[in-house]
Amino acid sequence: MKGKIWLPIAAVIGFVLLGGAPAESAADDFYKGKTIRFVVGFAAGGGYDLAARVVGRHMSKHIPGNPTIIVENMTGAGSLIAANYTYKSAKPDGLFVGIWNGAFVLRQALGDKRVLFDARKLNWIGAPTLGTPVCGIMAYTGLKSVKDIIAADREIKMGATAPGSTYDDVPQILNRTIGTKFKVITGYEGTGTILVAMRRKEVEGGCWTWESMRTTARAMLDAKDDDNKIIPFLIHSRWQDPEVKDLPLIPEVIKGEDNIAAYRAWTGPYEFQRPFSVPPGTPKDRVQLLRKAFADTMKDPEFLAEAKKVKFEVTYVSGEQVEKLVEGVLAITPRARELLDFLMVKPKK
Amino acid sequence: MAEYLDAFYTGLISILPFSAQGQQAFLFMLVGIFIGFWVGILPGLGGAATLALMLPFIYKMDPISAFAFLLGSNAVTATTGDITSVLFGVPGEGTTAATVVDGHPMAKKGEAGRALGAALMSSLVGAIFGAFALALAIPIMNPLVLSIGAPEFFMLAILGITFVASLSGGNLLKGLTAGCFGLALATIGLDPIRAVPRFTFENVLGQNVSLFLWDGVALVSVTIGLFAIPEIIDLAISGTSIAREKLGKLGGVWEGVKDTFRHWWLVLKCSALGAYIGLLPGVGGGTAQWVAYAYAVQSSPDKERFGKGAIEGVLGPGAANNSKEGGSLIPTIAFGVPGSVSMAILLGAFLIQGIVPGPDLLDPAKHLTLTFSFVWVIVIANIITVAVCFLFLNQLAKITFVKGAFLIPFLLLLIYLGGFTVKNSFGDMILVLIFGALGWLMIQFDWQRPPLLLGLVLGTIAERNLFISMRAYGMEWMMHPGVIIIGLLILGAIAYSLLQIRKERARVSEGGSETAMDVQMTVVLRPAYRVIFALFWVVVFAYILRETYWEVRPIEEQAALFPIIVGIPGLALAVLAFGREFFVTLHAGASRANPSGVTPSLEAAVIRRATSIISWTLGFLLAIWLLGFNLTVPIATFLYLKFGSGEKWWISGVLTLVAWIFFYGLFDYVLHLPFPEGVFFLWFS
Predict the structure, then answer these.
(1) Measured between beta carbons, which residues in chain A are less than 8 angstroms from residue B471?
(2) What is the ipTM of this complex?
């Protein structure tokens, strides 16, 4: 008797299960009713988190099936934990997108054994922005240009957060390539504390990105008095903002082929900031779908309007371009690698 | 001046429901308060993470409503966080952990109402103080923030560290040793100079653990472990409710309110301390409470009572963790320098609203009204919250009379959630467990825990700023006027401490100090273990020095400097502490063996219960690892209630359902926390 009751129920359940999940032949149907996880390697509230959340809010409508997108934070080791996780542990099903610091690609090129991924094998979806290294100096130093700075016969103190940051790397690279005498003072909590240290003359300048400087140091860029004014003096590539549009470019100032090659390798990751990637082995059609959705999002007026509101500078870099840039970074010449070797933490001789 | 007063007044009006715009702002503030209320109460929800989730909602709001919404939420988390800290011994927020130290023992003595009344009232006073400190600081913000450079910062951290002596609970050697350990703990992870990994156990535990430790150990995991786990164990052993005694009227909320005014000076001084620490950029939200706690102990003539339910230990941190909110807005507004993670998110909100932090916010012609509205939001949000809380406080305090066994599964869930959400990783749950074990052992053998935490919160600040000072100024920094002034203060503080300790000794030897109720049951009675535990500290410091000398120093000498400065005195103190325990045990073994009058049969029962709860605690984590949170919560809750505690079927069932709905509904369904799948399922897929 029992069988009689259970049979129709089983039939209904079977129908729902099979009918509810149609054959997943095309990626087009795959995303319907699914959830994509955007896993960010940094804590909530930072630039990476912001990028993931703003993109995440708009990308779903460009993916057939309109999956739900949720943003998670997997913090640790400057996002290296998330990077390694994307490569090694995440399921390659097209439902996991990692967002972490692309500078780890350079670390891979330099042979850092803690980088457990091979950037060539990751599937790059694209990047929403660039990073443009820029250096600024306080007006009270009396120095106004890169020439003054090279000519000055004293050490100039530059504030920095942690090793491996733009703050820390750029002055050291400049010391080695154009003969500046920067003394890098590391240990500051973040951009804000460095800006205060500049004003109280503990440090005299700093190098970070123009995308950040133009908003975080806005009050100091606009300041009229020498005590509070910061003067940008060197930038990586051309921007049209009045404060920087006539500045000399770093790659033009650096002389010598090897020096330039080293610098190019170092800036490689700045050409694709906050890149989105999916694990190796993700089905090709899903990768294509995500790439297209990402491209469409970058053109979406609603997305652009929101990005503008949060002062997020959008420059779309396609997945294919990121792939090429990654190749470029990994093709570092032995000489350039030697020049950049000081970036690695190793026992001193 | 007139325009300042005008902006001050307009700021208030703009958030009160007297105009259309004010109504909107008021409404959003209420929503914010509601969110902040729950964020504060629940240990798994952090204030900063919630703010990040709230941020997108402000796109369409006018600036005043937007900040009423965000600040309203942020301003009350520390207030309601105190409630959880007092009632359960689990810090509701990372910033309310210090309230646990004396607030929870009060709850155990049946004085939960009084502790809550005091915590809330002092929070309110602190919030108002901080808000008005912000208002007064507006004209002098620039010089105020610019007066503190790395050298002064370093000296302030050292001044804070000298408070460790007072926190030692009459046992200076052990207190200082624990303080050194806290400082050493702060050096775990990449050093700030050349990013050399220190004490990350790469050779022992492999790369994954090492990477996890790169960022250091999180304050939240350490505090949850040190304080919450021992309380859970104690609750299970005693087999009673959280409150061990019923006190009549004395336990009332009103008494706590009166306490706030009885200790008026202390509350004001701790508020000032909190506001000042808040305005120091880069100090982080967790520091103010511990320094305030230390100060409360320092300034009390009777230090023996602390840690056992001294009301001053609740009032100090209660005031400071709220006043720091107003303080930390100062650098955010004046320089765009966020004083904490929450402030960093508020900074993002400024950008969204198209406001440049800095002079514009201080200019009466531009956004000064908005700036003053912040002051009022902090004040009014706290008044509303505290008023609402007072309506329920007596009911809330009754939770401490609920049978302990009913609460234990919920508490276990909360501590592991609290650990997990630090970095959404498994690692912090293990840290909770490790520090839980350490905390429990420290109680068993009379080692004070607050010095350890003070060391942890101040260690990083001290090291970073010492290094910056040396790099930026050479040795010249020691000659800065600010450094000399703080240096004299430090000498004064040390002299004062020594004097106090002397007095205390004299008083104790006269037999003047009445012994307060023991807050934790002692399980391990054999004196031999005391000696072994003291030896453990010797080993720890020996390891720290060995590791620093052989592993860190060859890579970067400067990265080794601070661990050595801390490690050498740490080792010396630990050796002395060990020697003393050894000596005392040898001579007075028999008379000390049985301090709490426990009979052998009772001792057996106690040990059995202790073993049982420790196994359940470990099993809970193991189950999370194997089956994931979603299955573990109902299964472990049910098993514990039915078989661990022997409840009736229906009670176990109902409570399990409540636990599961609470967990699933809030953390999974609403908040989408990225809970890892159980490895058990990974094996089979």
Answers:
(1) 183, 185-187
(2) 0.82
